[in-house]
Amino acid sequence: MSSEHPAVTLVRQFLELSMIPDPQGAARYMSSDVRITFTGGRAMPNAQAITAFNGGRYNWVKKAMGQFDWTEHADHCVVYSNGTLYGEWPDGRSFSGNRYLDRFEVRDGLITRMDVWNDSAEWILQPQINRD
């Protein structure tokens, strides 16, 4: 997508590698001092921690990426990615339509901050919400 903002392209490539999962490849898109916070305020030190966390929460999970939005700031670009998650819970039940919103800060060609929100915690607490 040549008309895509460079920060959006970078985030898209990061997300695609994360879904493989290829945490080493995804880590190349993050600064060494990246700040990662998942739903519930869970701090993660790096892309490998994201893969490990997802490995404990799901048998597998992927993103159906929707829209990307971005805003320019003096020293960075903020990129939002929204869409839905689909995959399989540890008990083998499939799921889809699990909303997500990710916010990224991109500085000097690297992700310096990542914030993640999704419906997974609610769906784990009340499985009947997931009608898949």
Instruction: Give the termini separation.
Output: 32 Å
Tally the helices: what do you get?
4
Q: Provide the CATH architecture.
A: Roll
Please provide the count of β strands.
6
Q: Overall pLDDT, averaged?
A: 93
CATH topology: Nuclear Transport Factor 2, Chain: A
Biggest sheet strand order reads 2-1-6-5-4-3
**Helical content band:** 25-40%
Calculate Rg over CA atoms: 15 Å
InterPro entries: NTF2-like_dom_sf
Protein name: Nuclear transport factor 2 family protein
How would you portray this structure in words?
This protein is of the alpha+beta class. The protein has one domain (about 5-130): Roll (Nuclear Transport Factor 2, Chain: A), CATH 3.10.450.50. The protein is about 25% helix and about 45% strand. It contains four helices and six strands; from the N terminus they run ααββαββββα. A six-stranded mixed sheet has the order 2-1-6-5-4-3. A hairpin with a 5-residue loop joins strand 4 and strand 5. The longest helix has 14 residues, at about 5-20. The chain starts with 5 loop residues before the first helix and ends in a 7-residue tail after the last helix. About 20% of the residues are buried. This is Nuclear transport factor 2 family protein. InterPro entries: NTF2-like_dom_sf (IPR032710). It comes from Pseudomonas sediminis.
Helices and strands in order:
Blueprint: H1 6-19, H2 23-27, E1 30-38, E2 42-44, H3 47-57, E3 60-72, E4 77-88, E5 94-107, E6 110-118, H4 120-125
Parallel strand pairs: 1-6
Antiparallel strand pairs: 1-2, 3-4, 4-5, 5-6
